[in-house]
Q: What sequence folds into this?
């Protein structure tokens, strides 16, 4: 299975509203020549805005430090050092207490300062053409879709549970870096920035999968469909998506097939 096949399998079986997006943190500037960049932004934008364009318009974009508008995301990617006067003050809206507000950005997952030269973001299929693995795969999904994907992820990774990392803001930028640094799946709600700038509508979750763990996750989905007959986990499982969603186990709700 390649990334294009993985993307198509997820979109079809889970009826995704948006394309899964591959994110690659670029630490070697020479790598930029191998990236298939299709669009550039005319103005400085947020990381969330770039991801919205990638998942909704199939743009392949490259974000450099000088083009990142969001002040909360800048230190997360190591594009500048943390500063109490700036970053602490930015978090007082969320946490009120000045000391706690300064503690929050210090405890977010961050890339090493100055190490990341840029961030490539594109629909997952683009990584086959580039011959590269994404650092992280980003999916904007409903909670119901996330539940199914994470079950296949746990089975593929031989894990029985997962822990997620929430911060007062930076749901998408620090959420992505958490998955990269910890090499594990992560899921976050919207934050103020991702709601306004990244269009994380109120019924969606931000889901992150380590890039090299994406194909094994989808292969697990395919295996489960072969064994059970379909992708749904409702009831006995194996129904065509989303399966019969009524009163699981109720003895009154039974159907039988009409013989021809």
A:
């Amino acid at each position: 299975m390649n990334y294009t096949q993985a993307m198509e399998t997820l979109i079809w079986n889970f009826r995704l509203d948006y394309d899964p997006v591959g994110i690659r943190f670029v630490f070697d500037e020479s790598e930029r020549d191998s990236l298939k960049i299709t669009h550039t932004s005319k103005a400085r934008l947020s990381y969330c805005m770039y991801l919205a364009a990638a998942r909704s318009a199939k743009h392949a974009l490259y974000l450099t430090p000088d083009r990142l508008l969001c002040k909360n995301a800048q230190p997360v990617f190591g594009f500048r050092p943390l500063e109490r006067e700036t970053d602490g003050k930015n978090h007082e809206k969320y946490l009120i207490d000045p000391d706690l507000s300064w503690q929050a950005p210090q405890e977010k997952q961050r890339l090493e300062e100055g190490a990341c030269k840029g961030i490539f973001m594109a629909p997952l299929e683009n990584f086959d053409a580039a011959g590269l693995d994404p650092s992280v795969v980003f999916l904007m999904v409903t909670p119901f879709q996330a539940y199914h994907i994470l079950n296949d992820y746990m089975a593929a990774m031989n894990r029985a549970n997962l822990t997620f990392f929430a911060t007062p803001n930076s749901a998408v930028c620090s959420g992505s870096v958490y998955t990269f640094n910890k090499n594990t799946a992560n899921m976050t709600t919207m934050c103020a920035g991702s709601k306004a700038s990244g269009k994380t509508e109120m019924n969606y979750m931000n889901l992150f999968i380590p890039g090299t763990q994406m194909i094994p996750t989808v292969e697990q989905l395919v295996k489960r469909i072969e064994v059970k007959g379909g992708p749904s986990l409702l009831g006995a499982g194996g129904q065509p998506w989303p399966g019969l969603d009524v009163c699981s186990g109720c003895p009154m709700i039974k159907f039988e097939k009409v013989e021809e």
